[in-house]
Amino acid sequence: MAPRVLVSDELSETAVQIFRDRGVDVDFMPKLGKDKEKLLELIPQYDGLAIRSATKATEKLIAAATNLKVIGRAGIGVDNVDIPAASKRGIIVMNTPFGNSITTAEHAIALMFAVARQLPAADASTQAGKWEKSKFMGVEITGKTLGVIGAGNIGSIVCARAIGLRMNVIAYDPFLSHERAKEMGVEKVELDDLLARADFITLHVPMTDKTRGILNKEALAKTKPGVRIINCARGGLVDEAALAEAIKSGHVAGAGFDVFEVEPATESPLFGLENVVCTPHLGASTTEAQENVALQVAEQMSDYLVKGAVSNAINMPSITAEEAPILKPFIRLADCLGAFVGQVTEGPIKEIEILFDGVTATMNTKALTSALLAGLIRPQVADVNMVSAPIMIKEKGIIVSEVKRDKTGVYDGYIKLTVTTETQTRSIAGTVFSDGKPRFIQIKGINMDADVGANMIYIANTDVPGMIGYMGTTLGEGGVNIANFQLGRDKQGGDAIALLYVDEKVSDAVLAKLTAHSAIRQAKPLTFNVD
Predict the structure, then answer these.
(1) Is residue 66 located within the same domain as residue 106?
(2) The whole model's pTM is what?
(3) Of 373, 379, 365, nearest to 527 (Cα)?
(4) Torsion angle (degrees, nearest 10) of CA 221, 227, 233, 236
(5) Is residue 153 within 8 Å of residue 101, measured between CB atoms?
(6) Distance (Å, whole) CA 124 – CA 449
(7) Which of 28, 246, 408, 487 satisfies CB 3.0 to 4.6 Å to 252 for a cystine?
(8) Does 489 lie in the same domain as 366?
(9) pLDDT tens, 154-184?
(10) 93 and 198 share a domain?
């Protein structure tokens, strides 16, 4: 059955057709986003929900979306999506961060010009029949220093445009390397340095706990007298009340704002102030940008629902369409490794270490880790997946670490999982052979080569004569057929393990008979998702 997507906000017919062309059934209901009750009624039918800003994907809506796998936001902002609720339900949230980058960058430059030359006020005055030429003395852009807070996708475009305008550009961004800054032709600086030197400041960072109020009263006091401030990023990055006071005092010469702490912004401390230019969140409002993000969200959602490719996800590692088929068998392996440990480990887990050896170290390890954590938790939480598992692990306070290394053994690549509880450390390693099927190659440091089947039995015992016969006889008498039987030991008379691939689930009575043997310490039934 083809996946189904609901488009509940305005998207172009071209974008809707992309879903159809890629094998997705799509229902286009562009007004539904404003009808909360009807949306709540219909949402259980769909695998995907494509939205703009009108639809609010609240916790209540997400709870009702029993089949939903992905929410796609045509645009960069996801303020209208309850991301924690979606993550806990295992729903991928995608946005389209690049479709409106040029448009937003151009709007920032436009506001900078408008503030520098007081264009809106001059226009209003002239059209009112006045000729106040001396009142609207402006400043040149050329030769001025532009301070860019956030040199990511949009910020870097602003930097390039400003350099073309012959401005001196300095940038503050903790993630910007000196090498990248040099390539861009900008100077990387610390925030206080930027505040002290910039003639214009423009913000291009997301709203986080660290960036909220990044230009507060204290920061504004550090700015160069006569500075002009542009914000086309997110409301709340600048303390509007503090900025209003700085403008009234003359310390700040002007401001251009496209975003506000509360939107729609019907009032603000900035409204009515001299040389403050305000626009109603127009950063992405061009015909080209709106079409670009619509096409992009349709492509991304279709690729995920049809091919398993994940791009521009807020709450999950990206998986490209090219790497998805290569990664798929290793994702299955990672899930099986996690599922093994999750089923045999008793007691709460404190630490998890995942070793990627050889070719696996060059893969998308974040995706593999997410799959492994999902398998680990699934014995306790049945509906967990790659999205929700990392959230749950974090909530439990479990420490997760990844180790990558070059090939060390006979296998081109393998994954090894080691977990630590208060009482023990347990490990298992596995690989994928050319047939694409997962195999366990080591358990508790004991080497073996075992197929992974839907139903298995793990037995830990002391190495004594007669154990193979006893296990086989017990299972045979219980009506259990053995498809494959692998065993190993650390030394003669030491610890031994057996991994049996069986045709059906094993009854409690058979397990009880197995553990009745004095040499068997543990006999655990296992189930794996190997389809």
Answers:
(1) no
(2) 0.64
(3) 379
(4) 30
(5) yes
(6) 80
(7) 246
(8) yes
(9) 999 999 999 999 999 999 998 888 888 999 9
(10) no
